[in-house]
What we know:
- It is a single chain.
- By secondary structure, the chain is mostly helical.
- The chain has helices at 18-58, 66-102.
Amino acid sequence: GIKFFTFFYIPGVPFYMHPLLIPIEVISYLSRPISLSVRLFANMLAGHTLLKVFAGFVVPLGLAGILPLTFIVALTGLEILIAFLQAYVFAILTCLYINDAIHLH
């Protein structure tokens, strides 16, 4: 309801500061989903790019391509570990943001 908008009103701050702080709080609140999305996208893109670079070395090196192939296998395992970690961080931050929206101040 209307009580939600008190989330942007910071108690204990002088009244003359509110015209400056309220827009900052609104922008901060609206940028949370964007920052979560960019974080998730950047981590996924970096891992896939690294795998693509090492995969490009396997075939041209012929028999010596075994070393890049082992790196690809190791990086795939690391990629899976990072995916679980990112899912955990995403879920925790989402729960914190929802908790902030439900339980004001």
